[in-house]
Here is the input.
Amino acid sequence: MRLLLTNDDGFDAPGLNALWHAAEGLGQRHVIAPDRCHSCGGHAITVHRPIRHARQSERGIATDGTPADCVRLGLHGLIEAPDVVLSGINSGGNLGVDVYHSGTVAAAREAVFHGVTGIALSYYRASGHEFDWVAAVSHAARALQAILALPKVSGIVWNINLPSLAPGAPEPPLVFCEHRPSPLPVAFHRDENGGFVYRGEYHQRERPPEGDVAACFSGAVAISKILV
Here is the structure.
């Protein structure tokens, strides 16, 4: 199996390194990732200029395109076309309505548009917690193995969200749950120049009990399907 790894946090992001290790043993791994952060960039693509690329290491290639561009290049000639696209691990959750502006999810969605399995991975961080990328490798590896053991399903993106746990916590359960577009409470404050500065209350969002937000916030690895 050939795996294309990408993200929206950039080629040097710790989450992409964690994803590389989480995917070890699943197949032949290649990285094509943006050379800078494209967080909250959604499903943007580049059509009016050339997309530049350069090999950064034996693992893979960085481009000056978007996450979706990276997948397009991987599927159409930059490498041997992959069987599976893995996008992440994003520094921050992609739950509820997040999936509509997420570059991480957009990369996986681009794969699905072309008939290739697309899996997005994100790591929710609660207030006062730090990212534990060693633990994330273990949690992500279990989730990937569970998904790839299932029959292929067309027309859906698999969306994995890792929970925010205290140091030394036991392995969290894998919970297959519904994707619910739980709205994010949105607010702004005015800066000294009168501009509007975003202040979303991420942790105060609605948590339908059967949805991905509730599963992840409760300490489980939330696995949901997003229809494309």
Q: What stands out?
A: The chain has a mean pLDDT of 95. The first strand starts at residue 2 and ends at 6. The domain at 2-227 is CATH 3.40.1210.10 (Stationary-phase Survival Protein Sure Homolog; Chain: A,).
